[in-house]
């Protein structure tokens, strides 16, 4: 097996809607990532993509229409989908094809565009929505009229607070900390500073979660180029070598039948696999980008990934130990809550941030001497997780 | 609008369901909340299956859930496709089975973790009934 490295990356600012068509947006970030790697488009021989919007129909043969549009002649390509983990799997396939020696330069793309709420034909929209939501939440949970996964995560938050005797203030602290990072990130959707009071007084969404405890509807696109580590070295490209990928899925969909919802087994399993493969411990990680789509989820993940004891994340956040005053720095991009969460692209936004951190080019939000990075992505209330360990190279 | 949601829900239940979900809703219509248990390993499954998801035996039988359960977690959603918002949603701990998602037919304010609930039934359409839970007084 060869060693894979991330050699180029690009992402557009996260916003509620895309300012251009999905195809124009996707083409723009792909070409920018290729240029960032110092390559020509004709050198790309692998293309792995998310659907052109997770909640949008019409993705049939999207990898083919995109390779046609970009003029890419590949040795491997596919569209992949696994909920919020989608773009991480596009990356994984790109890295695997490079490691197997099938592809020299593989491109991974994640793009998402918010569902169109203002559909002109309301009846058509309602029909599509009813079917899509029942398909997503299944024939049992779906009939209860769930309009979003928020109630599941809200109940997870309620159990986490209940079991560890924590409060909504503890959740609010992490929202504030992430917003402070986002203020320094030109790609972030929400950059205006907020206070604990703002979070506590925001309109309730699903108790105990209020509006600022939740990531908001977002669109965006991000892409990375993966190449052999030896090429990156010879070409002297500042890159991130892929030291490990761990992945774990539980036989559950949203709320599990048994087992706790105040912690997520898949994240711990995927992390344990990745740490073992890389031969490192959590404390060796300088910077982590984790998939905290809600405030409580963010805190739970710090613990699931082995950084703190159960229930101890909140105190660490309050003391500044998660944002630069010692130890691993979490979500310097602003995280899902403030960078934004275009789900189909989110894991690649994390990867773009990690590459830039490991290259040392993040300005005011730069993590000092960042050499080892951790990426976490998940699908459907953490019933599956992917953890990748990256290392600065050279 | 209600007619569209009802018709589409029925169609989606067929599209995304299976033989076990069809039987589940047949029994719910008769106001019986049921699932399947494996004859071989004895594990109860939820959702019900036409086989055992633990030992994969095809020898299963249907049984009715105990009427009482305990509230494990709860919240509400401000927007719902079907019900009047805000809609209280909970995870209900059923002894010998595990936790299932349900509507909770009570205001959020009076609820607490661990309280005892009892199952009740609600007609969505003549064909589709759902279970929900109410606090035991």
| Number of beta strands of chain B | 8
Main beta sheet strand tally, sense and closure of chain B: 5 strands, mixed, barrel
**Shape category of chain A:** globular
The helicity of chain A comes to 25-40%
Element order of chain B: H for helix, E for strand: HHEEEEEEEE
Radius of gyration computed on alpha carbons of chain B? 16 Å
Mean pLDDT over all positions of chain B:
93
Largest sheet of chain A: 10 strands, mixed
Number of helices of chain A: 13
Between the first and last Cα atoms of chain A, what is the distance in angstroms? Answer: 20 Å
Based on helices, strands and strand pairing, what is the structural class of chain B? Answer: alpha+beta
CATH architecture type of one domain in chain A: 3-Layer(aba) Sandwich
The average pLDDT score of chain A comes to 95
Number of helices of chain B: 2
Number of strands of chain A: 12
Largest sheet: spatial strand order of chain B: 4-5-6-8-7
Residues in β-strands, percent of chain B: 35-45%
Give the overall silhouette of chain B: globular
Low-confidence stretches of chain A: none
Tell me the span between the first and last alpha carbons of chain B: 36 Å
Task: Please characterize this protein's 3D structure.
The complex is a heterodimer of chains A (394) and B (137). Chain A has 13 helices and 12 strands. With 394 residues, chain A is of the alpha/beta class. Chain A has a domain at 4-116 and 217-234: 3-Layer(aba) Sandwich (Peroxisomal Thiolase, Chain A, domain 1), CATH 3.40.47.10. Chain A has a 10-stranded mixed beta sheet, with helices on both faces. Chain A starts with a strand and ends with a strand. Helix content of chain B is 19%, strand content 38%. In chain B, strands 4-5-6-8-7 form a 5-stranded mixed beta barrel. Chain B has a 3-stranded antiparallel beta sheet with strand order 2-1-3. Chain B is globular, with a radius of gyration of 16 Å. Chains A and B meet through α4, α5 and β5 of A and α1, β4, β5 and β6 of B.
